[in-house]
Structure formats: C-alpha cells, structure tokens
Design a protein that fits this description.
The chain is of the alpha/beta class and 533 residues long. The protein folds into three domains: 7-275, Alpha-Beta Barrel (TIM Barrel), CATH 3.20.20.70; 281-325, no CATH class; 348-530, no CATH class. The strands form three sheets. Strands 1-2-3-4-5-6-7-8 form an eight-stranded parallel barrel. α17 (364-379) links the parallel β9 and β10 (382-386).
Length: 533
Amino acid sequence: MKQNKLNILDCTLRDGGYYNNWYFKKDLINEYLRVMDIIKVDYVEIGFRFVDKVKIKGPTAYSEESFLKSLKIPKNLKIGIMINAADFVNSTDIIKLGIKTFKPKKKSLISLVRIACHHHEIKKIIPLAKWLKKSGYKVGINIMQIPELSSKEINDSVIQVKKTNADVLYFADSLGGMDPKKTKKIINLIKLRWKKDTGIHTHDNMGKALENSLEAIKNKVNWIDCTVTGMGRGPGNTKTEYLILELKRKIEKNEKLIDLLNLIKNYFEPLKKKYNWGSNPFYYFAGLNSIHPSFVQQMLSNESFQTDDIYSNLNYLRTVGGRKFSNELISPGKNFYNKIKKGNWEPQNMLKDKNVLIIGPGKSLINQKKKIIRFIKKNKPIVFVLNAISPIPNKYINAHVVCHTLRLLSDIDKYRKLKNYLITPYSTFSKNIKSKIKTKKILNFGLHVKNKRFKFEKDYVVVPNSLAITYALGICTSGICKKIFLAGLDGYSDTSPKKYEMDELFQNYKLEKMSKKIYTLTPTNYKIKMINE
C-alpha cells in the first residue's frame, strides 16, 4: 500500500491543559502557533470543545470560534480540536447537540475534529461523525486504551469506525503500556480492515512514546501526535522537538529550529518546573499495570499523599483495576468526606459502657499475639480491626473498620469470607462503589472530615482526617464506650511527617470532653500508656 503523506499533529494545548486547567497565556499561544508553522507541523490541536454547562476551565478547553479569531493563526497551519464521545453519547438528540456545538465548516477556523471514544462508544457516535463530515470537517476517530482491548474488540472497533466515514482512525496508548512490538501488532490488526489514514497517540509512562511513534511510522501510520516538551496528562507524550529531530524534516534555516528551542526555554520550561510532568517510577508502574495516569498525576499534585501512600494506592489499583479514573478511589479525605452524610447505624447499640480493643497492622502483633488473645478472653472487649488483615483469629473479632474506598474494594473478597461486620461510611459512596460492595454485614456510620475538629453524634462523626484509626476513635466515642485499648499501633519513625500527624491526633482527641481513656497493649512510638494484662 502506498504511504500517504505523513502528518504531524501537535496537541500541546489540548493534552497539556490537564495540568493548568487549559489556561494558557495569549502570548504563549501565539508564539507557539508561529513556531509550529515554521517547523512544519501540519495540524495543531488547539484544545477540546467540552460541553460543560458551567464553563469553569480555560479557553483551550472550549476552543470557541470567538477565541480562535483572537489568535494569530498562521495561514498554512491547520487547526483541530478534540471532543469526548462521553459528552455526546448520552444526549437525547446527538445531532441537535452537534449543531449547538459546531458551526458549519465554512464559518469555522477548525479543519479537523477528533472524537475520543472507548470502543463501546464508537457505534453511538456514528451519526455525529457522519454529520460532522457532511458539515465539511475532516473527522478522526480516536480509540482510547486500545492496547487493553482483545484482538476481537479491536477488529469490531475498526468495523464500527468504517461506518462513521471518518478520514483518520487514531489509536491511543492511553495507559502508557505499549512497546514497539505491541505497537506493530495493533497496527497490523487495524490495517486488516482499515485502508484509509491511520494515526497514533502515545503516552510516555515507560519512556517509549517516541520509540512507539517511530515504529508506527515504519509501519505506515501517517498521523503522529506530539507535544512540546511532552506536556500532557500524566507522564506526557512524544516530544515534538525529539520527533522533529528524528524525522529530519526540511527546516529551511537553523534559526527556525532555534525558535522551537527558545519557545521551550522561554515558555514551556517554566511550566514544566511548575507542574512537573514527565515519567517517573510511579508512571512506569502504572503503565506496566494498565492504571490510568491521572491517578498518579492527582496524587503527585496533592501534598497529603506521601511516597508510601502513592505506592500503596497503585498496588490496590492493580488489584481492583484502574483503567478508569475516579477521584473517589484515591481521595477519601477532606475533599471526599466534605459533607455531612449520616449513617443508619448507631454504635451505642454495640458499644455503650463496654471496653473496645482496636487492632492495627503493626508488626508487634506477631510477638504479642498470645497476650492479646489472653486480654480478649479475660476482658471480653468489643474488638475492631482496622481494615482487613490481622493475625488475630476471626472468632475474636466483632467488626472491621474501613473508610478508604480503594482499600475497601481491594479487600472486599476478604471481608465476604470473614463474615464479620464491616463498619464504613457507606452513605458517602457513589452508586459505582456501592454496587461492588455486596455484603449484608455493613454497619453504615457517617464520616465528615474537617480540619482539627471532633464532633461525636449518634450516627456520624466529625474528625480531622480520614485515617481508619481516627474513624475508629470516632465510632468508639460516639458509641459511649468505657475505655479504648490499642494493639498493633506501632507508630511511625520520629522523622516521619505522619508521626507528627498522629501525635497531634491523639493529643487533640484527649482534649475533647467526650474522649475516652486510651491504653496500648503493644509497644508504640505514640504517647500512650502501655499496660500489661
């Protein structure tokens, strides 16, 4: 088959907008457009055209015609935008929404519209793609997460794309796990049924974005995405500057390449220093395990996530599946439990005037196991285990306490097998989370997180953080228990920021009028009195 013209599409302002909410200064945009033209980029994907009802993002999130007219767009540079199929497929009238979103091509500065969709959405966007073609636009269908699809799913996707009359079939390595061998395999599968233009969009989780793009060119893929300095969601994309150098495009004067280098130095290096995109071990791990890069990006941008938190969360995502991003899975703290949602279980019914033993995950449990069991047999406390794992036999445990959604999902099979009660802020969870927690043993106790606050109500608690131990203290106190005993709360090292957080937690708790006396059965780094029983 004859190799069609190679098209370079730079999507810096569209993909890079995930870092700055699509707010780029006008002088940056105009200089960027000038440089893209002189280094002979064929298309610039200027941004998205989201259909938000309330527009709270920057101008390249919407790429409206009035905004495009305000830019200095070089005469020979073609402009593209991307839309998400998800914004359209649930519309009662997809064509009506298309008419509302787009002007006819002759009244628009846009040449190309790419529709980003998952394989199961392609069939639903066929009418929209046909309407866009009829309106005069070049249309691309961008199939996301294609390396995670089976051969049959890829084949079926291509069949559906053919029905759209699209000009270009793009495939995206959304989760960044491709290598050249897999790239070639996917291309061969696509080209069995697709004879028109083909494009690739790579992510750089594993440092292979450029390598995969060059392998695609070698195999006659003729639309290649890139971004300046690789700026893009998560670890970023194939770097425009590297791609241009590799392809040895005919740049008439060296000064024009210098213009690209100056664009990077003056505009994009300061942005990269601020937002810190690019691959790292976390993105590499995510790429290996088909985890959406936004999980890593969100955690890295939040100072409350320490290194061990990020790694633990990624391990949980590997277990439960992390292809689809959900902030609910990684941010069960202040931002997640930011509203009061009462439960329907009152802990007084279980705990009033009784001692409670809270068992944590510390290594001291191994050496102190017999002591703990003797304590349970002698004193008959209500026994709570933080999260799922404990060396203490199940017959001595009354309930597990968990408020981290990701840990809950990753351990749900364990909870079902243990058949103990599960105390969790069920009311706060989305329908998606609730649908995956199928057990009749849930005790729904509300949780509201507010800085440096405690408030103990009969069916919910207000606490300063969403740690399982804090939630458990809230449950015990709201339940008007007698005393609280701890085991396996070994504590962090003196140099850990979490040590100070926990010290502050216990200190502030002790100042509360309703607080209960706390003792520990096992050695701990916290200032808690140890008893020998």
